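Figure 6 in text form: structure in, sequence out.
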């Protein structure tokens, strides 16, 4: 099994069985994301302890890549503070937008599966939607925010 098969299996698994799917009520902050190019929509709800994400859920309707990306993200950010999340988000963004020959950065864990998306530039926004939505939720703490990738 080569790396690409492994990546595809991770994406398919997280699309079929999304982790942390649902809604936190009450929550400390939330945001809605919309990717008009594909029609992906998701809502993130978060609980915070100080600067740290103690719990997160997502719900919505989108393509396999947007759903799998959100599922992987919720697993990756639980327990991280805002600074660590910003750093991780930067690495993910670089991974999604670098050339297909570039090495996948280390330390991404299962998020490395998203590197398969760079073979399909039109789907990058599907994969990054949840990260933009997360940034909006953290920036509008205590309220709600909406982002569109357009
Ligand atoms: Zn999509």
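Output sequence:
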């Amino acid at each position: 099994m080569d790396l690409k098969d492994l990546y595809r299996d991770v994406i398919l698994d997280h699309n079929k069985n999304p982790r942390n799917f649902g809604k936190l009520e009450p929550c400390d902050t939330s945001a809605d994301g919309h990717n008009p190019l594909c029609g992906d929509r998701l809502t993130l709800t978060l609980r915070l302890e100080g600067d740290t994400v103690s719990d997160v859920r997502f719900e919505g309707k989108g393509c396999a890549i947007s759903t799998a990306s959100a599922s992987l993200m919720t697993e990756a950010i639980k327990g991280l503070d805002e600074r660590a999340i910003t750093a991780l988000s930067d690495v993910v963004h670089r991974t999604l937008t670098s050339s297909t020959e570039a090495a996948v950065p280390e330390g991404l864990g299962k998020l490395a599966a998203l590197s398969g998306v760079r073979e399909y530039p039109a789907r990058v926004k599907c994969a990054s939607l949840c990260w933009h939505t997360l940034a909006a939720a953290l920036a509008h703490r205590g309220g709600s925010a909406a982002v569109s990738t357009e």
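Caption detail: The CA atoms of residues 24 and 45 lie 6 Å apart.
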